[in-house]
Amino acid sequence: GYQLTGHDLINVRRVDREKGPGGFASTLRDRLPPVLILGREGLDALIALHGDVHRARPWARLSFSLHAVRRFRRRWIATYYARRNYGSEALAELRIVVGELYGPVLGVRCEVTSFVPARTPPVVRGILEPFLSKTVVCGDGGTCEDKPWTAKVPKATSLRMSVVGSGRSDSFRFELGLTDSAADSLKNHAHKKSVSFLLARNRKEERRWVYADNWKDWPDTIVLSADDPQAAVVTAHDTTPIVEICGTYRRTACRHTVNQNAMWIKAGTPTDPTLYILLKPNKSRTGPDVGVVSMSHDTDDSSCLVATFSHRWQPCDALNESLHQQTVELQNFQNISDCQMDCFVPRIHTRVSSPPEEDVLLLVERLSASDVASLRQHVPPSRTGPVRLDVARGQPAQQTLRAFNFVCVPAILHYAASPQCKQDLRPSATWIPLPPKDASPFGTCETVRPPRPVERWYYDGERKMWDRRGGAGESRQYFQALEEAPTAFEYWVDGENASLRVKAFPEVAAHHAAGQLIEGRGTSVETKEISVSYRISSLALQEDPVLEQFRVPRSRGREGAVVTLRTPHKLYERQRQALAKMLAIENGETRF
């Protein structure tokens, strides 16, 4: 069995009316600029200071476009990407964190990460961490402290430290119920010189295979100390506070919240932040989990990491006197206020509106010549006037869609979150009745939903088996009909007027939705009129869908169907009840 312990839960009374995150997401997206530019002088000075170790030169002249705004635990993160060409892969990332930064500290932090080391030789393997950051800390009384830009020192400082544990508690492996048999099995497998073990030993990762002698125990308390306490001081990403990692860390009783239930906390003071000893997981499983010291309980927040243990260190080593001395790498950030690093918001000439034209949802105007060229990159030059873009088929469509995302999506999302948006995108918006445009009831239009080829079965007397036949060319005709079927959204670019129109056809989506409900349920259902209403909503504002009216009653408690099978076979009671429910659905006796 497993030895799992849960959280100590406390019942909290919920208020009758909760404020959803959608409203704040719209406000944040409205306030965020769609495009950002880092100052050239500051980046050039940064490259001259440390050399181009982070390879920022390829994207130093590019702009960052807003990609996504997502909600995380106690924080919101807005992500910007810098791309060399329209629709190409991102070369750098700029993230703006709004909310909790580390511990109880609230504010805003900007982080810049370069992806070039993972794309060009010499290739850097593993996770790329931010190398440039700026923090604004919110204080009491609405005051804000604007801290200078800081850059990650290219080379970490190695320090010999003493990691001593005391007290004993169950390790993560022991809590999961692993026994000595599991440890002995791995050890025997390793002694057989398996290829996997030999490869791991070459990478100095044999401890992932061979358990330590005291693998069942982890320390309750870990004390970090150094011969020179002043050497164990780290300059954090915002230059203050100066982090002193030496001290006493106590294990928490919390389970199933952090990786391997490994969390030791050093209590903070007004001048020293709270620190955590955690095991940072290797999510791709290409290597072992690594112990770290962080100012945040979130191991994904790499800008808060201040020290990293050797990949061979395990918490049980703190209870082994021969392994108390460990090499710890301290990561420092350097104040680069002398580099005059600036972040600019360029003026965006692109304008988005909702014109009164029929079927036109959005109109994007004032596109530049390069923007129009990128959108028309797979359109023959001889075609003039408005041209419909293909965004559904083949690699050219993917390239066109990437160009559309780069050119138009940031401005469209900014318009959707602004007060100028005419559409009501709230989840509580009024439903708009939608009558069918032709005589075909919703779900029966063969132009929108082409019928599948009819399968004809015949008995082959020579082979004594049933075989399936289809009409000549029916499959190809069906495929062509699918390609020619109308779509719910169309994108039309006009090179002469430097504009793009997004057309919406809700009746197409209504035919697809209604067709799934009435398909295969008899002609009497298909001829019934289905009332359809629609509304336009934003993904950032959507809530959980209402599914109660679509749930089928359970079969438990239902009188089972009477089915006679060949003796001695018979259906279980549960099978008879499920069959009765299926027959009730087929006979139209079940209301959704």
Structural features, described:
The protein is α+β, with helices and mostly antiparallel strands. The chain is built from 12 helices and 31 strands. The strands form 7 sheets. Strands 1, 2, 3, 4, 5, 6, 7, 8, 21 and 22 form a 10-stranded antiparallel sheet that branches. Strands 9-12-15-16-17-18-19-20 form an 8-stranded antiparallel barrel. The protein has a 5-stranded antiparallel sheet with strand order 23-24-30-29-25, covered by helices on one side. Helix 1 (22-31) packs across helix 8. It starts with 21 loop residues before the first helix and ends in a 6-residue tail after the last helix. The model has no long low-confidence stretch (mean pLDDT 83).
Short description:
The protein is α+β, with helices and mostly antiparallel strands. Helices cover 20% and strands 27% of the residues. The strands form 7 sheets. Strands 1, 2, 3, 4, 5, 6, 7, 8, 21 and 22 form a 10-stranded antiparallel β-sheet that branches. An 8-stranded antiparallel beta barrel has the order 9-12-15-16-17-18-19-20.
Strand content: 25-35%
Identify low-pLDDT runs. Answer: none
Count the beta strands: 31
- What is the averaged pLDDT score? 83
Which descriptors would you attach to this protein?
globular; single chain; 592 residues
